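Structure tokens please, single chain.
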Amino acid sequence: MSFGTLLRDARKKMNMSQDDLAKLLGVNRVSISNYEQDKNTPTLSNLNKIKKILKLSPDYFEEDKSLIKIKTIPLIGIASCGVPSQSYDDIIEYIPVPDKFARDGVYAVTAEGDSMLPRIAHGDIVMCDKDAPCENGNIVHYTTNDGDSGLKKFMLKDGIVTLYPLNTDGFTPIMLKEDELRCAKAIKIISDL
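Here you go.
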């Protein structure tokens, strides 16, 4: 059984609707539906809340590890989708992800702001791979030598990196020398966690 099937079965066993579970968890019903369809996985914090709400054993979702291939990656903080913000390097929590993403160099940030709309919304979790090459046109999580951090579209030409917002309504590109920042390629965007 998949994670979503196990969740749905446990929810129904408690005679609880998706709306009921969503309210108790503090998310919208679409999030619960996406979990049950295996489109998204909850954060580790929400996963633990689900287990408590549905009165499940701590290892309920791990009963058949051959079928549920979920591992965790570090969520390191907030990345601005607007004005660059101070970089966060401390791990806030670990979030569950499909095991194909759980490898060295992969981490996640929470998007803050709306300069990357419509692709990345405020509150989305963005998985990044610091070992993947950042190429023109990629969405990247960047950190400047001064410690500013953000999510933007990456373009490199003649040693100058231009970081473009997708939403140009009130947002302008940022230009830096290639050696003034480090980048990690965004590899997956997870909405409604």
